[in-house]
Write a structure and sequence with these properties.
globular, Rossmann fold, six-stranded antiparallel barrel, Topoisomerase I, domain 2, Topoisomerase I, domain 3, four-stranded parallel β-sheet
């Protein structure tokens, strides 16, 4: 018997089927060991020795692998074909050696790029040893990330309370987001105007733009105001034009190469709206396999790659499919060969492509996420082997009879669409101007102006990063590696260092502070060039050209003294340095020219950066006499936070309503005293826009909506820790926004509460519905994904199956759910019968044995009731 170890249980079944009865395939379920999350797991003083822990679940699986390996002929390590996969194989091998489970067993390492019978069987014919150079690269990265995290994070916690963590690549990615925000804040908008005209030269009208005015070629800002723009427009209206030149240039547009990990994440973000994590989860499922006709088939090749090259047999298949679907004219004379630009050839595998292009996405029935991503991958691969698009770029120049005014029109004509018949690459700027189509005109022909208009424009700052553009920028700078981008961006969100608005990254206050702190005290380690150079050295390790411990020694000899140095800096010095660096952000110039640091409360004090266990804030230098404080951030609208002010008097109580700024944001307060009533401003409400009416509406929450028609109990509406809600008899239902709290009526509230109860009520312990998957193919009963007390699970009738750990419950499809339910049912996964029912099935003889002899019915009856009651409450 041969034992094969793979990472995922999803791969085990199809691979076992491909290999036959002489093989037994077991799953490691990903990594089996990791560095304990405590200080001392990597010991620089002991030549960077590393301590590894095996968690309880991994220990059970390793015991199963060890038991199966004892006495087997071969142990074949078939984890993923990348650095992490190599590391998992190494970890498994190390544990099995310690368990002495490999006596007389041949150990081999194999890799395959796709879960197909051909790929797996061919891989088995080419075994090798574990690539220790890749393992060394893994150890170096893991040690570096650990040392930076466990050395730098405690410095942050002590010097910058409220911070969460720092990381070798994470902090540099955060700096990119913060630097872009600073660019936007410093940007000065500039006005400019353009003049366009609808022109006809004997045929259909076309659009032309003014390029010369009063005999001078125009630059972008020459028409700087309405007066000059209108004068230019009137000149265009009055002029008589002639077609001075018609220039046509043939051009070709070549298709992009098939996907790498990075380009797949970028394009899925642009075209599908997927974040990097969602993209990789869907790609993982496509790689591991989908049930097609009763057989699990891997639909795409391995999805963590820097390479764009494609196997020769895939190129031949692509050309056949293109000829059959689109015609021979769309097939180029020779297959297109793409070469990778990855610096690390060890990790530059084949590009991401379908395992068979004959599997047309239109003919497959896949879950929505999988179907859309597979279609994207299929189209990109097909397009990459198609003929170039042929276009004709046309420019028409028109000039007035006096030579003082000129217009220009540009446009493209597609002569042959080529690969564009299938696929066009997405753009980071969706508002990019479309190229117009021009009519045929003759040089020397007269032209007339049908209409002319002047349009006002303003320059715009660089856009905030989207997932696609941030991944692209990180790849350009050489920061991190594509396989890590999804986890890096997820950490930034989870740490609340950034937030997403309209699919763009915006740094939170704590994210900005961490970045400024690192730039002030650890500048070298968040420099883009330094991080990229470190990545190149790690690549040298994986290529076998640099010793991994030599790399760690070089890094640690400078990094460790720097952290010791910063630990000796007082918190006050740290705050003063941050206060100076953040001054343009914290204290923007005032319109009246007054001192932006002057305290708005006491006038004599000056504002400065202070800290508490909840994090930094801005406070007055006259504390405790003046207790003015405000958060460090500006409001959402970009206005500087204002100090305390009176909104007016409450007509019901006669008390003054104040708008105040606290450490956690703006709030309204009714009157003064020891415990005045307060209410924080909800999300979307701005302090400068607050007035008495809005303040009173907040202070009078919660409000009674009405009585529920069924039990006549009150329904109330309010704003709580988790946002706006309606409440009835312990059941909370979310409202769409803060404004709805004041407007929601009885019918709407009853409907929301009914929907919440139908889907499950999370607050009282019942399950909450996450997704309806449809009817079970066997009995037509509904299948749903629910969120229970112990995590998400799948429900069908009386059978519940857990959603696999690490799987997005929203990504679960009907096919996968049916398989998980079947697996659970095979293990006896239906609901257990009540204890009373089990007792009822006891044999009469056994039941009689339990009944004491000669007991009267009057005494026995209460004993039964007591026992039943205890059983019910156990």
């Amino acid at each position: 018997m041969n034992i094969v170890v793979v990472e995922s249980p999803g791969k085990a079944k199809p691979i076992n089927k491909y290999l036959g009865s002489d093989y037994k395939v077991l799953a490691s379920y990903g990594h089996v060991r990791d560095l304990p999350a405590k200080d001392g797991s990597v010991r620089p003083d002991d030549d960077f020795a590393m301590s590894w822990d095996v968690d309880a679940k991994a220990a059970k699986r390793l015991n199963e692998i060890a038991a199966a390996a004892k006495g087997c002929d071969k142990l074949i390590l078939a984890t993923d074909p990348d650095r992490e996969g190599e590391a998992i194989s190494w970890h498994v091998l190390e544990v099995l050696k310690k368990k002495k489970a490999l006596a007389g067993v041949t150990v081999q390492r194999v890799t395959f790029n796709a879960i197909t019978k051909t790929a797996v069987t061919e891989a088995m014919k080419a075994p090798r040893d574990i690539d220790m150079e890749l393992v060394d690269a893994y150890l170096a990265r893991r040690a570096l990330d650990y040392l930076v995290g466990f050395t730098l994070s405690p410095v942050l916690w002590r010097k910058l309370p409220g911070s969460r963590s720092a990381g070798r690549v994470q902090s540099v990615a955060l700096r990119l987001v913060v630097d872009r925000e600073i660019e936007i804040e410093k940007f000065k908008t500039q006005e400019y105007w353009t003049v366009e005209a609808d022109v006809s030269a004997g045929g259909d009208p076309f659009l032309a733009r003014l390029t010369k005015h009063e005999g001078k070629r125009l630059t972008k800002f020459d028409l700087a105001n309405e007066t000059s723009a209108f004068a230019a427009r009137d000149a265009v209206k009055a002029a008589t034009f002639t077609v001075a030149a018609v220039e046509k240039k043939p051009a070709r547009r070549s298709p992009p190469p098939p996907f790498t990990t990075s380009t797949l994440q970028q394009e899925a973000a642009r075209k599908l709206g997927f974040n990097a994590q969602r993209t990789m989860q869907a790609a993982q499922r496509l790689y591991e396999g989908i049930d097609i006709g009763g057989e699990t088939v891997g639909l795409i090749t391995y999805m963590r790659t820097d390479g764009v090259q494609t196997a020769p047999e895939a190129l031949d298949e692509a050309r056949d499919v293109i000829g059959g679907l689109y015609g021979r004219e769309y097939v180029p004379d020779k297959a297109r060969i793409y070469s990778t630009k990855a610096k690390n050839a060890q990790e530059a595998h084949e590009a991401i492509r379908p395992t068979s292009l004959a599997r047309n996405p239109g003919k497959l029935r896949l879950d929505p996420d999988l179907g859309r991503l597979y279609e994207l991958i299929w189209k990109r691969m097909i397009a990459s082997q198609m003929e170039s698009a042929r276009i004709e770029r046309t420019t028409i120049d028109l000039e007035s009879s006096d030579g003082q005014t000129a217009l220009r029109a540009s446009g493209d004509v597609t002569l042959f669409d080529g690969y564009l018949a299938v696929y066009e690459e997405g753009r980071d700027d969706p508002e990019e101007e479309a190229v117009s189509k021009l009519p045929a005109v003759t040089q020397g022909a007269g032209a007339r102006t049908i209409a002319a208009r002047a349009d006002q424009h303003f320059t715009e700052p660089p856009p905030r990063y989207s997932e696609a553009s941030l991944v692209k920028k990180m790849e350009e700078l050489g920061i991190g590696r594509p396989s890590t981008y999804a986890s890096i961006l997820t950490v930034l969100r989870d740490r609340s260092y950034v937030r997403m608005e309209k699919n763009r990254f915006i740094p939170e206050d704590k994210g900005r502070l961490v970045t400024i702190f690192l730039e002030e005290f650890f500048r070298r380690y968040v420099e883009y060039d330094f991080t990229a150079a470190l990545e190149e050295k790690l690549d040298l390790v994986s290529a076998g050209d640099l010793d991994w411990k030599a790399l760690l020694r070089e890094f640690w000899q400078d990094f460790h003294p720097k952290t010791e140095e910063v630990l000796k800096v007082s918190t006050r010095e740290v705050l003063d340095a941050l206060d100076g660096a953040l001054a343009p952000f914290l204290y923007p110039p005032k319109a009246d020219g007054s001192d932006p640091r002057a305290c708005p409360n006491c006038s004599s004090g000056r504002l400065g950066l202070k800290t508490s266990r909840f994090g930094p804030f801005v406070g007055c230098s006259n504390y405790p006499e003046c207790r003015f404080t405000r958060p460090i951030a500006e409001t959402e609208e970009g206005d500087a936070p204002s100090g305390d002010r009176e909104l007016g008097v409450d007509p019901e109580t006669g008390l003054t309503v104040f708008l105040k700024s606290g450490r956690f944001g703006a709030y309204v307060q009714l009157g003064e005293g020891e415990k005045p009533k307060r209410s924080s401003l909800p999300k979307g409400w701005s302090a400068p826009d607050m007035d008495l009416e809005k303040g009173l509406r907040l202070l009078r929450l919660p409000r009674e909506v009405g009585l529920h028609p069924e039990d006549k109990q009150p329904i109330t509406a309010g704003i709580g820790r988790y946002g706006p809600f309606v409440l009835h008899a312990g059941t909370y239902a979310n409202l769409s926004g803060a404004d709805e709290v004041f407007d929601v009526g009885l019918n709407r509230a009853v409907t929301l509460l009914a929907e919440k109860r139908a889907g499950g009520v999370g607050r009282n312990g019942a399950a909450t519905a996450l997704k309806d998957l449809g009817a079970h193919p066997a009995d037509g009963a509904p299948i749903r994904v629910l969120s229970g007390r112990y995590g998400p699970y799948i429900k069908h009738g009386s059978t519940n199956a857990n959603v696999p750990r690490g799987t997005d419950p929203q990504a679960i499809g009907l096919e996968q759910a049916v398989a998980l339910l079947a697996e659970r049912a095979a293990k006896g996964g239906g609901k257990k019968k009540p204890a009373r029912a089990a007792k009822a099935k006891a044999t009469p003889k056994a039941a009689a044995a339990k009944v004491p002899a000669r007991k009267s019915p009057a005494k026995k009856k209460p004993a039964k009731k007591t026992a039943a009651k205890k059983a019910a409450t156990a």
